[in-house]
Amino acid sequence: MLRAADTGDDRLQLRLDAESKSLLQRAASYRHKTVSQFVLATALEEARKVIRENEIVTLSGPDWTVFYDALTNPPAPDAALREAFARYKKATG
């Protein structure tokens, strides 16, 4: 698999103190990577984790059953929902 650090044209610059740079160099050497490869791989891993935490919904078994039932057997619209839909239609249409 090609890595972005090997094939990309975009550049990301950052400033850091000597201690932070030394720490990154040390960690990168343990992984047998350049600092750029190490930072990119670590940042991408964290980015995927943050996206998963914020974009993927996981439901327990009982919650899934309630959710699925609401999708497959939705309740009939009540007066408030009909009124809201009428306002929406008027505003958008």
Bin the strand percentage. Answer: under 5%
Report the order of strands and helices: HHHHH
- Total of helices: 5
Structural class: mainly alpha
Please outline the major beta sheet. Answer: none
Measured distance between first and last alpha carbons: 49 Å
Question: Poorly predicted ranges (pLDDT <50, ≥5 residues)?
Answer: none
Average pLDDT reading: 92
Molecular shape: elongated
Instruction: Quickly count the domains.
Output: 2
Q: Share of helix among residues?
A: 55-70%
SS elements, strand count: 0
Radius of gyration: 25 Å
Keywords: Plasmid, Toxin-antitoxin system
InterPro entries: Ribbon_hlx_hlx, TacA_1-like
Protein name: DUF1778 domain-containing protein
Pfam family, one: TacA1
Summarize the entry for a quick read.
With 93 residues, the protein is mainly α.
Task: Using brief descriptors, characterize the structure shown.
mainly alpha, 93 residues
Q: What do these coordinates show?
A:
The two termini are 49 Å apart. Helix 2 (18-30) crosses helix 3 (35-55). It is built from five helices and no strands. The protein folds into two domains: 4-55; 61-92, no CATH class. It has helices at residues 4-7, 18-30, 35-55, 61-72, 79-92. The mean pLDDT is 92. The chain has 93 residues and is mainly α. Keywords: Plasmid, Toxin-antitoxin system. Belongs to the TacA antitoxin family. This is DUF1778 domain-containing protein. InterPro entries: Ribbon_hlx_hlx, TacA_1-like.
